[in-house]
Specification:
The chain is an all-alpha fold. It has 4 helices and no strands. Helix 1 packs antiparallel against helix 2, helix 2 runs parallel beside helix 4 and helix 3 packs antiparallel against helix 4.
């Protein structure tokens, strides 16, 4: 899956975007917490994770 599509998904549902990138790693759970505390921090974290980490494919 391309990074562009992951970013679009991360904007709509931040935890799903992180999950597609890293699976059930610690970043996924942190993103759920950030999204619950505020939608914008969840988006920022998700886009950061997608931009920093190489994909699984």
């Amino acid at each position: 899956m391309s990074d562009f599509l992951r970013v679009v998904i991360a904007i709509l549902l931040p935890p799903l975007g992180v999950f597609l990138q890293v699976g059930f790693a610690g970043a996924f759970w942190l993103n759920i917490l950030l999204t619950l505390l505020g939608y914008i921090p969840g988006i920022v974290h998700a886009v950061w994770i997608i931009a920093r980490r190489p994909g699984h494919a």
